Amino acid sequence: MPGTTAIEAVGLRKSYGDLRVLDGIDLRVPRGTVFSLLGPNGAGKTTTVRVLATLTPPDGGRARVAGHDVVAERARVRRAISLTGQYAAVDDLQTGAENLRMMGRLSGLSRRDARRRATALLERFDLAHAADRPAGTYSGGMRRRLDLAAGLVGEPEVVFLDEPTTGLDPRSRQELWRVVRDLAEGGAAVFLTTQYLEEADRLADRVAVMDGGRVVAEGTAESLKSRVAGHRLDVVATDAAAYERLAAKAGTLTRAHAAPTADPGPRRSPESLTLGVPTDGGAPSVRALLDALDPDGTDVARFAVRTATLDDVFLALTGATTAKEPARA
Amino acid sequence: MPDATLTLVGRGVRLSRRNPDALVTAMVLPVMLMLVFVYFFGGAIDTGTGTSYVTYVVPGVLLLCAGFGASTTAVRVSEDMRAGIVDRFRSLDVGATPILAGHVGASLVRNLLSTGLVVGVAFLIGFRPEAGAAGWAAALGLLFTFVLAVSWLSAAAGLLARTPEAASGFTFFMMFLPYPSSAFVPIGTMPGWLHGFAEHQPVTPVIESLRGLLLDRPVGDAPWVALAWCAGLLALALALSGALFRARTR
Ligand SMILES: Nc1ncnc2c1ncn2[C@@H]1O[C@H](COP(=O)(O)OP(=O)(O)OP(=O)(O)O)[C@@H](O)[C@H]1O
Ligand SMILES: [Mg+2]
């Protein structure tokens, strides 16, 4: 039943010692949708997932998952969810098939059904050829896929995936995206964390951006994207003097060519002679930007157009300069 | 949920089977020690029991196996706690008891094998027990109650240790416990200051019971003292492991 609420959190708080990891998190995820929690390292994504998946009790606030309270009705929540953590949780010494059959049995399937489910999932995640090999012999991406398959054995109502595509190659990543969309179409709620803006964009019905234990922005991917430049033009100067000239021009020029709202301005890294300027990524605007920055064609040694990174989102959304350099999609 | 426990015992047995180094050590080491005791030291030891030394020493070697097999449990539990797998089990509503019982069950299975091997080799080198079926059943029942208790204690140690390496340090302690008892030499031959410990530590009544039962001799209250020890250790292990598991998974 799409529309009804699968996850609802109000004012979740959690501290480890003096460290305030969650500082009042409010979230709502309807059934049949994909929700993505974006944030840099240490933002509190994993902690949020652990609280919602009943593995860690919150210090304050309330949360209901699949209609049950995560503290008072832990067992009921657990029967409705699955969790695939940030780090692979499979037994290296068991084969892929054995790992999945074990998860099936633990989710309450009969021996027969567990076997059948394992075979189907191995097929779906392109692991059938390695079904009878110990997981310890799998490549990183294969392990990750097995781990994800293990999370789907019990056909859960609410699926938590903590950075599911980290370490996957592009093909596996797309395959995972397809699985996630199928799950949502089948009526499940999918809650995933990611460091990749693109992933949230392609996949999620709604996105929340988290930083320092707070949700700093929430909305559809479109609405968030409209608040930052979608791309960035990185230019590498020929030498330090050229870098200074480019930087001076960038400061005045970006307004004209960049995305319209919440423009973060140029990003400066003098050590590497690199300057990042927001743009919409289209050929005409990139050409115009290059011409404007370097009319004589002497100061720019190389350039690259990059998809906006989380860094850019943070600069735009929070004005923070503390966001760490994230991995790029 | 006994289903979950059975599934996880199956897992534990598979993990043991696929760890051939540890398995071979657990099987071969006790047999080697038995041969060393019987052939190198046996001639010099007068047990004063009127039986051959090999017959005297078998119960002690079985307890060495028990300690060794159990201590592997600590390492396995500690490895699980470090990997994400315990979170996954918990998210399936599989709690501490089935997770630990899986490893303890595997330890019982390993001990079944090593006990069979030790007894088999012992027969080849002159082990001649006089027990009937009832005596054997009682001896094995007591032995496995002991294995159960020390395995669960070992699981608690695995929860206590921060790393599998630290947990494996527990091996040493479990292996050592049979030495200051009547396992290999009569307590009377040890220095006086050791008597108190050797006579009252848990391994001694277990050994005395096994020896008495296997030789079909009067055992007095030793089996009851042994069972009381096992029950106490098991209760302690259950309480301790429950508390430690909760503390480790906050
Ligand atoms: N068990 C714990 N004890 C102490 N501190 C913790 C614990 N778990 C998390 N933290 C701290 O809480 C903060 C948030 O951690 P969390 O794992 O939720 O971040 P994250 O957003 O998932 O980061 P990443 O992208 O690196 O996975 C970090 O500073 C982390 O060190
Ligand atoms: Mg994380």
Automatic annotation (TrEMBL), chain A:
It is a peripheral membrane protein. Its EC number is 7.6.2.2. The keyword NAD does not apply. GO terms for molecular function: ABC-type xenobiotic transporter activity; ATP binding; ATP hydrolysis activity. Signal peptide: none annotated. It is an enzyme of class 7 (translocase). Residues 254-280 are annotated as: Disordered. The keyword Cell membrane applies. Residues 7-237 form the ABC transporter domain. PROSITE patterns: ABC_TRANSPORTER_1 (PS00211), ABC_TRANSPORTER_2 (PS50893). Keywords: Antibiotic resistance, ATP-binding, Cell membrane, Membrane, Nucleotide-binding, Translocase, Transport. One of its GO terms (biological process) is daunorubicin transport. It is found in: Cell membrane. PANTHER family: ABC TRANSPORTER ATP-BINDING PROTEIN, DOXORUBICIN RESISTANCE ATP-BINDING PROTEIN DRRA. This is ABC-type xenobiotic transporter. It comes from Streptomyces roseolilacinus.
Automatic annotation (TrEMBL), chain B:
GO terms for molecular function: ABC-type transporter activity. It is a multi-pass membrane protein. Residues 21-248 form the ABC transmembrane type-2 domain. GO terms for cellular component: ATP-binding cassette (ABC) transporter complex. The chain crosses the membrane at residues 21-41, 53-75, 108-127, 133-160, 172-194, 224-245. The keyword Lipid metabolism does not apply. This is Transport permease protein. It comes from Streptomyces roseolilacinus.
